[in-house]
Amino acid sequence: MQIGYKLFAEDVAPKELIRRAVEAERAGFDFVEISDHFHPWLPEHRHSGFAWSILAAIAASTETLRLATGVTCPSIRYHPAIIAQAAATTQIISDGRFTLGIGAGERLSERIVGAGWPEVGDRHRRLREALEIIRMLWGGETSAYRGEFLRLEDARIYDLPDELPAIVVAAGGPQAAELAAELGDGIFATDPDAELVGAWEAAGGSGPRYGEVPLAFAPDERAGAEAAHRRFRFGALGWKVLAELPDPAAFDQATQPVTVEHMQEAFACGPDVERHLEVVAPFREAGFDHLALNDAGDDPDGFFAFFADELGPRIRSEAAARP
């Protein structure tokens, strides 16, 4: 079992994200995973730094901590050739500690380049083409590609690592799970969905299984739920809605019915290690072996101490006892 810390770039300034990554390594986390968006989700969010610059600084500031994107869309706002190059460079400067997490994206960030927002089937076909281009460029030869959506003209990546990064593909349903099995090295999900993992395995998938666990460390349960509501109420909408809304104002309006009590049910709120373990358990039981703890609380340093002293050892001991 690998345990990671989610770097929520939409609500935390870039230098503070780097500091938190360093503290996460000291607290005993195995990896950090950073979101890669152009816009934040909610009006309360005040940041959205460039993930790849932050990753480079983290790589230079840590020694054993693994790094991952959680996740990057390599097919609209970025061209896959740029992501292939960025991931290869990040793998080199981190001495092989990088994992490329990719997905089909959300309108919120991808529409900014004026390319429109494709319907879901086209998004998955674009993602397939992007994966094919990345794999092709990582072969080290000058390459060209002409797909239904994407083009590549006589491109070559000159700096490739000795060991290529793993590609972990975000999946919210069977179609994406099959794509992850075919062209990825692992799967990424935000829900503890055993059927999704099963569909991926049935399609031939193997490798790491990343899941994001919703937590909100705080002095008491109510304070944790209020912090989760302030930062993460957008997550209650589900991915079919998350992918389609255009801006923070729309997310603010759509989340008006979401209450603090809803967040209290979904998140492990407060200081009780047993409640946190209760929320972690479904991910472990569904087969996820890389858990990114997504702390919505107001005290990151308190959370790191809580993880080092209580939560981390308990997660690892329970995982060892129930393989």
TrEMBL record:
Gene3D superfamilies: Luciferase-like domain. It comes from the Bacteria. The keyword Signal does not apply. One of its GO terms (molecular function) is oxidoreductase activity, acting on paired donors, with incorporation or reduction of molecular oxygen. Residues 12-289 form the Luciferase-like domain. The keyword Oxidoreductase applies. InterPro entries: F420-G6PD/mer, F420_G6P_DH-rel, Luciferase-like_dom, Luciferase-like_sf. Keywords: Oxidoreductase. This is F420-dependent oxidoreductase, G6PDH family. It comes from Agrococcus carbonis.
